[in-house]
Design brief:
- The protein has five helices and no strands.
- It has helices spanning 22-30, 34-46, 50-60, 82-94, 100-142.
- Among the domains are: 22-60, no CATH class; 82-142.
Length: 143
């Protein structure tokens, strides 16, 4: 199989620069008639045309989304370690107190917190090392 050459198009007869997309051309054709088209669709919907009705509803009303309810799990809050928090989520999942989806979300949140804690700890350790190095160099210069 031939490899692609750098800087050479795989489709030299492709779409020319500046060429309009078909959707853009169609939109330009419909634009002057937009009010009349919308009016007609609404009239058809009111007459009982189910396709027109669906079109109106799809465009005017956003899809319903599931609302997340707060999740209460024993051992998740307070001074529990990240390991203990993770174990609490796994236990709640095993007992059927939370859905797999909710458990996954909670575990992702705990993992993100673990990453934040890790970064914070590394920053603190680097700062301490830099300060220690500065003190060591200061003592070294005096000798």
């Amino acid at each position: 199989m031939a490899k692609f050459e750098k800087g050479v198009s795989g489709n030299p007869a492709g779409k020319p620069k500046g060429a309009k997309d078909k959707r853009t051309a169609l939109r330009a054709m419909l634009e002057p008639h937009a009010k009349d088209l919308v009016k007609t669709v609404v009239e058809k919907a009111l007459e009982g045309d189910t396709t027109a009705l669906r079109l109106c509803i799809d465009r005017l009303m956003p899809a319903l989304k599931a609302k997340d309810e707060p999740i209460v799990i024993d051992g998740l809050l307070g001074t529990a370690t990240l390991v203990e928090q993770g174990q609490s989520v796994i236990t709640a999942l095993a007992l059927g107190k939370v859905s797999p989806s909710d458990a996954s979300t909670l575990m992702s949140t705990i993992a993100a917190q673990a990453k934040i804690t890790e970064i914070d700890d590394l920053e603190r350790r680097v700062t301490e090392l830099e300060q220690t190095k500065g003190r060591y160099e200061h003592v070294k210069k005096k000798s």
